[in-house]
Amino acid sequence: MAEKFTDDNENLLDPATSKAARFDTGVAIRKIVPRSTHQEWTPPENREDPVEILIKTSIGRIENLLPIRYSRMMESPFAFYRGAAAIMAADLANTPNTGIDLQLCGDCHLMNFGGFATPERKLVFDINDFDETHPGPWEWDVKRLAASFVIAGRWRKFTNKVCKEFAWNVADSYKRHMLEYSKLSALQIWYADIDLAELIERGDDEEIKSFQQKRVKKAAEYTAHEKEFAKMTYQEGSRARIKDDPPLIYHPTGEDGKRILREAGIIHTRYLETLSDEKKVLLSRYSLHDLAIKVVGVGSVGTLCGISLLMSATGEPIFLQFKEARQSVLEPNVKAKGKYSHQGERIVRGQKLMQSASDMFLGWTNDDQGKFFYIRQLRDAKVKPVLEIMKAKNMADYAKACGWALARAHARTGDPSVLSGYMGKSNEFANAISRFSISYASQNDSDYNRMLEAIKEGRLPISTEV
Length: 466
What we know:
Elements: H1 19-32, H2 50-58, H3 66-73, H4 77-82, H5 85-92, E1 101-104, E2 113-117, E3 123-127, E4 134-137, H6 138-155, H7 160-182, H8 186-191, H9 196-201, H10 206-221, H11 224-232, E5 233-236, E6 239-242, E7 249-250, H12 254-273, H13 277-283, E8 286-294, E9 305-312, E10 317-325, H14 343-354, E11 363-366, E12 372-377, H15 392-413, H16 416-423, H17 428-456
Antiparallel strand pairs: 1-4, 2-3, 5-6, 7-8, 8-9, 9-10, 10-12, 11-12
Helix pairs in contact: 1-16, 6-7, 6-15, 6-17, 7-15, 7-16, 7-17
């Protein structure tokens, strides 16, 4: 692993240093960590058992939800990968490192990208999950994203050659767009976003384009809170209540349930304190009416997540989603230290650093039992990728879009001139990342099979209700 490239060269990374000098700094790093070394993946002899890592990351989760977690992960090697960010973080710590740290997504796979509405109601394409965000080596996000395309591609029965091209497109797009960002000012980078409608328009598959345009139109017209209210609530006297749909949506019961409901008002007040004054004024028109536990995603299953229903005096609803914030899987594996002891604040700050625009109600809170949370709107004009209908060309285009979005996010806290200097204009970096992705996809297959064996042996519980 390379030493951090600072000390004698620290002045070259200063923003006042010319872009050309910073580009040369990136070129110089190639001598320490050649670009070709990023193709390397050989599991170390002392590699920790992936099943043991899963068991460790389940400590502190809601016990009766763990069978749902493992059931979802056993659906396919790709589903396993989505829930195995901790395994890959430990593996990435054993890969070549240029020593350039910036704010990472931390769980950078292709399902954590998509379209959503900004507070100004513009639909953009961006990263949309930051539970694991933390400062760390920039290469880690690129490798996790590229490998996710190989693993998802294999799940879709594309050939290894085609899957390798998906990964190559991720890295190549990242490289090309990082070069473009290196020519902009810091302020221009901060203003940059990726317009979802324009991105879809670039495609040349008319069938997919028409499908996506209809989804964007529907998302733009979607009045989320009113529709969710009609679908997810029932009237109990004069009070609206969230419908139970066990085991995926339910009201907490027992002593823990009483405590959660008792603390809900305090937790909500603490959340409001993290918002800007104008958001406090807006939400002061609403009061907390109900909350329920909601099982979400793959990696989050078993953590304390749910939805809360807020109502105005005149009966308008707002649904907020709260998610438990635990230590990032990156933290034990990186040298970079995070600034925030509050894990909810870590996620919110990281998201605001990386996203072109964040949810207007994004904030953090905590209970009195040592649990941290972050809060955002439940749904807001979200457009998720639909892998099941993608042809190879569509997957390649999507890989390019994700590589672009990741470059934009990294350019905000990293130095695009240094990164561009390191990657250069040749195909060497993209070639290395695509080779790594093939190797790591095979590692993921092996780990997935070990999980299946552990389930058969009874080491991991599963549920029929997923």
